[in-house]
Amino acid sequence: MFIGDLDKVVNLLLLLSGRLAQVENALNNLDYSTSPGDRSLCFSPGPQQLKKWVLIQEHEDAKELKENLDCQECIVFDILASYLSEETLADYEHFMKMKSALIIEQQELEDKIHLGEEQLKCLFDSLQPERGK
After folding, report:
1. So what's the pLDDT on residue 32?
2. Which among 70, 68, 73, 65 is positioned nearest to 13, based on CA atoms?
3. I want to staple 16 with a disulfide (CB 3.0 to 4.6 A). Which of 42, 59, 79, 94 is the partner?
4. Environment class of residue 35 by beta-carbon count within 10 Å: exposed (0-12), middle (13-18) or buried (19+)?
5. In this structure, are residues 80 and 92 in contact, taking their beta carbons and an 8 Å threshold?
6. What is the rounded CA–CA span in Å between residue 69 and residue 49?
7. For the segment 103-124, what is each residue's pLDDT rounded down to a tens digit?
8. Where is the signal peptide, in residue numbers (predicted)?
9. Sign of CA dihedral 15, 17, 21, 23
């Protein structure tokens, strides 16, 4: 159950971090693409700023969940220490360290695949008019 919770919280943190980055990029693009007169409107609370604020709050909540899981991990480790051999306990400790790292790496790879697919689609779409000639 603990490992399942860890998976969920790490994935939640990654998801919220990604969404927060997207909103910040959208806000930055809005800042650069608007005229100086309209920029003052960007600083009034709008849907993007509200979305950013909500995502920041959710990200903070998820970090708190992760901190609670870290405390739980210590408790689980202490319980397992009384039942497992040193070697098996070391294997468990290694597994736990690698679990989050592998989830993060998997997400990075999925993001790269998605980006590559988008670039391939854009490239294919840009070649379509040339095929008709």
Report:
1. 61
2. 65
3. 59
4. exposed
5. yes
6. 30
7. 999 999 998 999 999 999 989 9
8. 1-21
9. positive
Q: Which two tokens stand for residue 18?
A: 């990604």
**Segment 34-75, tens digit of pLDDT:** 555 554 555 556 788 888 899 999 999 999 999 999 999 999
Structure tokens at 92: 């468990």
Q: Which two tokens stand for residue 54?
A: 């909500």
Taking CA atoms, 57 is separated from 20, 53, 92, in Å, by 11, 6, 33
pTM listed for this prediction = 0.71
Residue 125, both tokens:
């779409």
Gyration radius of the chain's alpha carbons: 22
